[in-house]
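Internal ticket - ligand job 445, flavin-adenine dinucleotide:
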Amino acid sequence: MSRRDGTARSPHVVIIGAGFGGLTAAKALAKSGFAVTLIDRHNYHLFQPLLYQVATAALSPADIASPIRGIVRRDRNVNVILANVSGVDLDRREVIAEDHRIAYDTLIVATGAQHAYFGHDDWAKYAPGLKTIDDATYLRRRVLLAFEKAETEADPDERRRLLNFVIVGGGPTGVELAGAVAELGKRALASDFRAIDPRQARVILVEAAARLLTPFDPSISEAAKRALEQLGVEVRLGAGVAAADCSGVSLGNDRIETRTIVWAAGVVASPAGRWLGAETDRSGRVVVGPDLLVPGRPDIFVIGDTAHALGTDGKPLPGVAPVAKQQGGYVAALIKARTAGRTLPPFRYRDFGSLATIGRKRAVAQMGALKLEGFLAWLLWSVAHIYFLIGFRNRIVVAMNWAWNYITFQRWTRLITGMSGARMDAMPTPRAADGQRAPGLRDAA
Ligand SMILES: Cc1cc2nc3c(=O)[nH]c(=O)nc-3n(C[C@H](O)[C@H](O)[C@H](O)COP(=O)(O)OP(=O)(O)OC[C@H]3O[C@@H](n4cnc5c(N)ncnc54)[C@H](O)[C@@H]3O)c2cc1C
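stdout (structure tokens):
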């Protein structure tokens, strides 16, 4: 690569997305001979697996997010751009990010996924999902406001509606949310109100499949269901949502009246497939080759939740953080190897197991043939999550918060924020139903 003045320039690797995949790639290319540009629409890297704890007032946003510039501050060859990418000019090899056009030699697309409503995008305003910090603080506001509104509500039907919480989707996020909301009512808020008894709040977890946590072994699914039921969660299996509106959900002929529905049922990949004119699967993920390159595009890698890559068993790899991180590390190594005139064997995912937590001291874990449930699994879950959090401060703060919650059952971040100028009766659901953008609700695009 040479500049106009004849001097050599470093090959330019542009990475879109500073999530698990993009950030791992950037860190692996740090202090190398490459010029790296990392673009993200947020100025922070987010540890999504703990978002549900922000939504249920156990942690603060800053505990699970770190500024991207801070993470790469010592990596002088990594440049960070805060911008929303809207396309890629394949002919000119440029990324289009708001007013910028950023030329690349090699492009890594790691833009993740977003909620999917299976063709019912109109449900988004009644049943927000959990993907960003804004989503989490918005959900926290809705959950806490529901209790506040119920405290002053004279109509018993409306009070019941306010104290019903429906979580749609029995994957790890739905299971974790359901356990945390149940504990919020049963423990943390139990003595805070005078007119209502928060312990009477109903938490209903709705799953269309015949069991929870379908990627896990059936015995683990059963253990998770039992643990949730012990926390008072009602688990409805084989129940697909037929309709959602501002006062409830319909499950076939059954109707649950509620003011709070949380969507944890499905994801669709970012629109990167459109930017690249590439083949995508049903979830919009870009079909990549064994080296994570877009077929016919030797300069464009797609990784993480945006990629449809096959495992050694021929099945698509799951949308989980370890896949994204391992893929980020792999493409960085492959880019370096190619520059040195070498190649690497195809990407191979090493699965170290899956974990999901239920309430403040139970979890389920599956690592190959080893299956764990209960407190030991929770300890493993806690250690793994603290280890993978980015930043020493975050690790210390989260560990202390968990210890405090464990001992006292309290959740000190139960702050209702984002209400400046809004009246107490401005429950987000009806407001969103009026056609306004609910505060903090993620853009659908
Ligand atoms: C609530 C929740 C809980 C989860 N729990 C677990 C768990 O317990 N264990 C587990 O392994 N996985 C879990 N996951 C899944 C895991 O978080 C994802 O698989 C992982 O984040 C994928 O990494 P990624 O790099 O592909 O995308 P992400 O980490 O989502 O990063 C994508 C990045 O791209 C940026 N971006 C997107 N579009 C644009 C654009 N147009 N312009 C600029 N920037 C853009 C985003 O801001 C983001 O920073 C969870 C996910 C969620 C939502």
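Auto-summary: Residues 16-22, 39-42, 48-49, 51-52, 84-85, 110-112, 130-131, 172-173, 270, 304-306, 319-322, 324 surround flavin-adenine dinucleotide (CB under 6 Å). The longest strand covers residues 35-40.
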